Automatic annotation (TrEMBL), chain A:
InterPro entries: AAA+_ATPase (IPR003593), ABC_transporter-like_ATP-bd (IPR003439), ABC_Transporter_VariousFunc (IPR051782), P-loop_NTPase (IPR027417). Gene3D superfamilies: P-loop containing nucleotide triphosphate hydrolases. SMART domains: AAA. The keyword Kinase does not apply. This is Multidrug ABC transporter ATP-binding protein. Residues 2-224 form the ABC transporter domain. Pfam families: ABC_tran. GO terms for molecular function: ATP binding; ATP hydrolysis activity. Keywords: ATP-binding, Nucleotide-binding, Transport.
Automatic annotation (TrEMBL), chain B:
This is Uncharacterized protein. Keywords: Membrane, Transmembrane, Transmembrane helix. It comes from the Bacteria. The chain crosses the membrane at residues 12-36, 74-96, 117-141, 185-204, 213-233, 248-270.
UniProtKB/TrEMBL annotation, chain C:
Keywords: DNA-binding, Transcription, Transcription regulation. The keyword DNA-binding applies. It comes from the Bacteria. This is GntR family transcriptional regulator. PROSITE patterns: HTH_GNTR. It comes from Ornithinibacillus bavariensis. Residues 9-77 form the HTH gntR-type domain. InterPro entries: Tscrpt_reg_HTH_GntR, WH-like_DNA-bd_sf, WH_DNA-bd_sf.
Length: 229, 276, 129
């Protein structure tokens, strides 16, 4: 379980997170929803210790993040983080070199699934294919948790479909996933839990299937209530 | 340890192309320098001979040609300065390229399953090895250049020099090629210390941005004062109190303190304050 | 397998309904093997936990059964299948009655229209085949 506990964060004087708390379970897809600039990316960065917090703490399976955590939790930022002059195969070799949890078999499988050519250089890839390589580099790690920052933004519809397919496949099965998005439409049926954020606070945290069952509301209905209140 | 070595190798390979270009430019320019300076000398001599002077008279007027004439020329000095400037700039760029490149590679480096200080050590090691590499290549180039010189300038006009003489005849090279082991340790130790301090300054900036620049400069200033503390004491507090060897060992000590301080501070910044 | 889900009903209930329809219309034969939970999630583009939940509920209702580690199968019990069919018919009739009553149509007229419409639809379907 990933526990975010009363986390606050300021950029200069501007508060970005004002006491954010939520949990994300293993085996579930948790979706952080909110318009751009509400601190979704900052939360993911904070979980990975890529930005310092002003207060609060974040635990991964009960532990604060340390160097060993990076073998258990993968982060897929909204843009690829490999060097532009690397080939896809170079990027995969880099991962294999440094991570014990790298699963080359799974990586090869995804190369096939996404129809990528390992000899292509990252700088020459289309937006959609860059996003797919970015996904691949995270998903081919045998980790317990995967964080994905806006995996669907800025790419073509067919790439979106392919990436959405990932969520219902064995690539994600049994892992804990946290995904951020400002657009829920495509993935409403894919998520377990929704965390609605606004101006640095969690407005509501709920299980999508439960809210349909108990209140007959879609995720978007709840968002409408919460955000337009 | 494995990951530190891999990272060092990785950092070296990232600069390798530019490094090869620097080496190539240095070699070619210095060879051209040999050709141009010696031809200039020979044509001056030739002029004198044509005006009716004897060889001895001409030699008296211009003096014999030695490798010093080459090392003191623009052709020799410019590429050395270029290499030095490139590496000095790269001390900063080796960090900033990870944040400001087309893709933010800093994410990748900070999420490696290894102590983040290894990234710092790998970058420092890469800089250090590249400096050593350039210096040893320069030593290797000297005999080749000297051979070329001998084939152009006829023996009577040539004053032969060994490598040691070549080096000591070139003021700027003397710092790079110490003659004793102690000198060697101090020169490169001070160099390494400077790199570590600048790295820490860069990390301050990366953690706190504008405020970080101030903190970085402050850190460098304090490091400087700490390092020169024995000298300052010698000059202003306990005037002429220490023997030279005592002063030397005190500065080795303060140097080690500065390096340790840089490493500890960088470790703290990388683990607790860094942001992408 | 293409199912259009609505956003307001629990997805697992919609999945169960989809299975019931296929069982009632013979799309699934008694005893037929059904996809694994993961395959179902992938085919329907739904959360694997939801597929799991749907299968669990169907198992409890006796619509499907699993023996050991073998793939799950549609029930062989004719009683259960009859009940599914009956349930779907009653559901349809119920919603028909509700909408007809809400616009005050007399039963006779409604039944007449139903017969006419049903026949025409069937003829059209046969022609198009």
């Amino acid at each position: 379980m990933i526990e975010v506990k009363d986390v606050t964060k300021k950029f200069g004087r501007k508060p970005v997170l004002k006491g954010v708390s939520f949990t994300a379970n293993k085996g579930e897809i948790t979706c952080l929803i909110g318009i751009n600039g509400v601190g979704k990316t900052t939360i993911l960065n904070a979980i990975m210790n890529l930005t310092p917090l002003n207060s609060g703490e974040i635990l991964i399976d009960g532990e604060r993040i340390n160097k060993h955590s990076y073998e258990k939790i993968a982060f897929i930022p909204d843009a690829i983080t490999m060097l532009p002059n690397m080939k896809i195969s170079d990027a995969m070799r880099f991962m294999a070199d440094y991570y014990q949890c790298w699963n080359q078999k799974r990586a090869d499988e995804m190369i096939g699934f996404f129809k990528l050519n390992p000899n292509d250089r990252i700088s020459t890839l289309s937006k959609g294919n860059t996003a797919k390589v970015n996904m691949l580099l995270g998903l081919a790690m045998d980790v317990n948790y995967i964080l994905m920052d806006e995996p669907f933004s800025g790419i073509d519809i067919f790439s979106r479909e392919q990436i959405a397919d990932v969520f219902t496949s064995h690539l994600v099965e049994d892992r804990g996933v946290i995904i951020t998005t400002h657009e829920i439409n495509d993935i409403e049926h894919l998520i377990d839990k929704a965390v609605l954020l606004n101006e640095g606070v969690v407005l509501k945290e709920f299980n999508a299937e439960e809210i349909r069952e108990s209140e007959g509301k879609s995720v978007i209905d709840v968002m409408r209530e919460v955000y337009l209140k | 340890m494995m990951r530190y070595l891999k990272l060092t190798n990785f950092e070296l390979s990232r600069f390798f192309k530019i490094y090869l270009v620097l080496i190539g430019v240095t070699f070619v320019m210095q060879l051209l320098g040999v050709v141009f300076t010696s031809n200039k000398y020979l044509s001056a001599i030739k002029e004198l001979l044509e005006s009716g002077m004897t060889q001895e008279e001409a030699l008296k007027q211009w003096g014999p040609f030695s490798f010093y004439n080459v090392t003191s020329s623009f052709w020799f000095f410019a590429p050395v300065a270029l290499c030095a400037a490139s590496l000095i700039i790269y001390v900063l760029f080796i960090w900033y390229r990870d944040w400001f490149g087309k893709n933010t590679f800093a994410y990748r480096l900070l999420m490696l399953p290894t102590a983040r200080i290894n990234v710092y050590f790998a970058k420092a090691t890469a800089i250090f090895l590249m400096v050593l590499g350039l210096i040893s290549l320069q030593i290797a180039f000297l005999p080749i250049e000297s051979h070329l010189l001998q084939s152009i300038v006829p023996a009577p006009y040539l004053e032969e020099q060994g490598i040691n003489q070549m080096i000591s005849s070139f003021d700027s090279l003397r710092i790079l090629y110490p003659t004793t082991f102690i000198e060697y340790l101090t020169h490169y130790g001070v160099g390494l210390m400077a790199v570590l301090v600048v790295f820490t300054g860069v990390l301050f900036e990366r953690c706190f941005r504008w405020k970080g620049i101030l903190l970085g400069v402050l850190f460098a200033g304090i490091s400087l004062i700490v390092f020169f503390l024995p000298v300052i004491i010698q000059e202003f507090v306990l005037v002429q109190f220490f023997y030279p060897t005592e002063l030397f060992f005190l500065m080795v000590l303060t140097g080690l303190i500065v390096m340790t301080g840089s490493i500890l501070m960088s470790n703290y910044l990388l683990n607790k304050k860094i942001r992408v | 397998m293409d199912v259009k889900f609505n956003n307001r009903d629990p997805v697992y209930i919609q999945v169960i309904r989809h299975f019931k329809e296929k069982i009632a219309t013979g799309g699934y034969e008694p005893g037929q093997e059904i996809p694994s939970r993961r395959e179902l999630a992938n085919n329907l583009k739904i959360n694997p936990n939801t597929a799991q939940r749907a299968y669990k509920e169907m198992e409890e209702e006796g619509l499907i059964f699993t023996e050991g580690n073998l793939p799950s199968r549609i029930t062989n019990d004719p009683e259960v299948i009859r009940n599914v069919r009956k349930e779907l018919i009653l559901e349809a009739v119920h919603s028909f009655v509700a909408s007809v009553q809400s616009i005050n149509v007399p039963l006779e007229e409604a039944l007449h229209l139903v017969k006419e419409n049903y026949q025409r639809n069937k003829n059209e379907q046969e022609e198009s085949l």
